[in-house]
Design goal:
Structural class of chain B: mainly alpha
GO biological process, one term (chain A): intracellular protein transport
CATH architecture of one domain in chain A: Alpha Horseshoe
Largest sheet of chain B: none
Low-confidence stretches of chain A: 280-289
Oligomer: heterodimer
Strand content of chain A: under 5%
Number of strands of chain A: 0
Mean pLDDT of chain B: 82
Radius of gyration of chain B: 54 Å
Number of helices of chain A: 17
GO cellular component, one term (chain A): SNARE complex
Family (chain A): Belongs to the SNAP family.
Largest sheet of chain A: none
Protein name (chain A): Gamma-soluble NSF attachment protein
CATH topology of one domain in chain A: Serine Threonine Protein Phosphatase 5, Tetratricopeptide repeat
Order of helices and strands of chain A: HHHHHHHHHHHHHHHHH
Helix content of chain A: over 70%
Strand content of chain B: under 5%
Number of helices of chain B: 8
CATH class of one domain in chain A: Mainly Alpha
Number of strands of chain B: 0
Main location (chain A): membrane
């Protein structure tokens, strides 16, 4: 066995090509060589070559009907692609790895792979990241492991918030609430609903926030919780245009236990004093009309 | 024989020998005279009983009972005061066989009686004095006599002590409230932490179960493998084979040495 990875690669390639002398490809030997070559390349920091070697090794494993090893190789290839900042390949490789994991019947690693992909692409390609997060959540939900999906939902919603798409972020929080409901995770559920309401308020959408609040109040678990009280205080403060009260609520301990992104939004909450004053004026008019 | 029986018997005996009781006869005799003396005597006895009750009340340790007794004493005093008024009217009336001096003395008697009634302690003033040190002692007979002149600035002015007291009370209450706020914030944080921990543990439970089944499977596999390995080893390294190996080795060495010797 030559120690030069390039030689190993070429040898392995020869082993897999079908020629007159070779009637069936020797995938086992080839895969071994590919793996060794990849290690050699990694040691010498030739990440591009290592990545190619890992790809081929993974294919070899697939041919040998061991999807688990194939998936592992794919993940390593994807990690290298991430290092090289080749984002398309990152997404592709992680997706393939995830499919292979699903073939093994292991949902958790599959969704983990997609989660890693999404995290890698968050900065660079947020839309793809969102898609990856959604797929990861679906895989988990199909398998009935909703609890693991909480973190993914939260990450996805924070990506939406960074993109300033508040309605979508709030939708994701509501989906989190649904997942939490299935697992009887009342604390997470209530926190999700409160986060959704805060996101709506941050997006200057008081009516949506109120509608959301009314919907959520139908749910017993939310009705009896601290988060419900905080939400109602916030909404009344908004309706009365009481900026002091809004700030006080935003600094309360209930809000401080939510996600970081949400806390930041809450602290900035009276988004533009315009909204608060508008509501105030609106109320005055109503009173006049009644009299 | 129970106490009740003893009491009844004693009463019977007393009734039997009542005619020998000098004081009682004198009483009965005296009260036979006219309305005045009768009323006088009855009021007298009532006063005695009230004084007795007042003494009981002052020595009573149970506050509720003391208050009840005092209330009774006051009620009786009020009734007696009314009776004294009636007595006074009777005293002034002209009765047969009564001299002028006697009538005057009767008026004096009535006044003395009224004083005696007033003097009876009913626990009202004493308590008032002991508990409300700074405030003025209320009258025994409660009179609602707030006139307009009284409602000037001086009437509702707080004394220095009371305003200081009030300030101190407010300060202490504020401090208590602040302390309670701090505690409540801490408790909120603890509660949230505890809830999150609870959820996290709930998440881990099915994972742990899975791990348990997998580890169980792995242990049984391992046990099987170990047993088989041992069997193989035993087969490979059984002592019989070992001895045979050694003997053959010796034979081979012997042959080699023979050849070597033969060559040399």
């Amino acid at each position: 066995m030559s120690s030069d990875p390039e030689k190993m690669m070429s040898k392995a390639d020869k082993m897999t090509k079908l020629t007159l002398t070779r009637w069936s490809a020797d995938w086992r030997g080839a895969t071994e060589l590919y793996e060794q070559a990849a290690n050699g390349f990694r040691a010498s920091s030739k990440y591009e070559r290592a990545k190619v070697a890992l790809e081929k090794a993974s294919q070899g494993q697939v041919m040998q009907s061991s999807p688990w090893d194939a998936a592992k190789h794919m993940e390593s290839a994807a990690a290298l692609a991430q290092k090289l900042s080749i984002w398309d390949e990152v997404a592709d490789f992680y997706r393939k790895a995830s499919e292979l994991y699903v073939e093994c019947g292991r949902a958790q690693p599959a969704s983990d792979a997609l989660g890693k992909a999404a995290r890698a692409l968050e900065e660079v390609k947020p839309e793809d990241a969102i898609q990856l997060y959604t797929d990861a959540c679906e895989i988990l939900e199909e398998d009935g492991r909703d609890q693991m999906a909480f973190d993914l939902y939260r990450a996805c919603a924070s990506v939406y918030i960074k993109l300033e798409k508040f309605t979508d972020a709030a939708t994701f929080f509501l989906r989190l609430g649904v997942a939490a409901d299935k697992c009887d995770a009342t604390n997470s559920q209530c926190k999700a609903y409160l986060s959704a309401i805060i996101v709506y308020l941050y997006g200057h959408d008081l009516k949506q926030a109120e509608k959301c609040y009314n919907d959520c109040s139908q749910i017993d678990a939310f009705l009896k919780s601290d988060q419900n009280r905080t939400a109602s205080r916030l909404l009344t403060a908004y309706n009365e245009g009481d900026i002091e009260e809004i700030k006080k609520v935003a600094c309360s301990s209930t809000v401080s236990n939510l996600d970081h992104a949400i806390i930041k939004l809450a602290r900035k909450l009276p988004t533009g004093d315009v909204t608060a004053v508008q509501m105030n004026a609106g109320d005055d008019l109503d009173e006049d009309d009644l009299t | 024989m129970t106490v009740i029986n003893i009491i009844f018997r004693v009463e019977e005996i007393c009734k039997k020998y009542d005619k020998y009781d000098v004081d009682k006869q004198r009483e009965l005799g005296a009260s036979g005279d006219d309305a005045f003396s009768r009323l006088f005597n009855s009021i007298d006895t009532d006063i005695e009983s009230v004084v007795h009750k007042a003494e009981l009340a002052s020595t009573e340790t149970n506050r509720a009972a003391a208050v009840a007794l005092n209330a009774e004493v006051r009620r009786t005093k009020a009734r007696l005061a009314e009776d004294v008024v009636k007595l006074q009217k009777l005293a002034v009336k002209k009765v047969k066989g009564l001299t002028k001096e006697e009538r005057e003395s009767r008026c004096d008697l009535v006044i003395a009686l009224a004083d005696r009634i007033q003097v009876i302690p009913d626990g009202h003033e004493r308590q008032a004095n002991s508990e409300w040190g700074g405030a003025s002692a209320p009258n025994k007979n409660i009179k609602f006599d707030i006139s307009e002149e009284d409602m000037d600035d001086g009437f509702f002015q707080q004394t220095e002590e009371s305003s200081q007291f009030r300030q101190e009370y407010e300060m202490r209450r504020k401090k208590q409230d602040e302390g309670l706020d701090v505690i409540s914030e801490g408790l909120d944080a603890l509660k949230n932490l505890a809830r999150d921990m609870n959820e996290e543990l709930d998440k881990q439970v099915p994972l742990m179960d899975e791990m348990e089944t997998k580890v169980d499977g792995a242990t049984s596999d391992l046990k099987n493998t170990n047993v088989r390995l041992k069997q193989q080893l035993v087969k490979m390294r059984s002592s019989r084979n070992f001895c045979i190996d050694i003997i053959l080795l010796c034979v081979v060495l012997g042959i080699i040495s023979y050849i070597y010797n033969a060559l040399n």
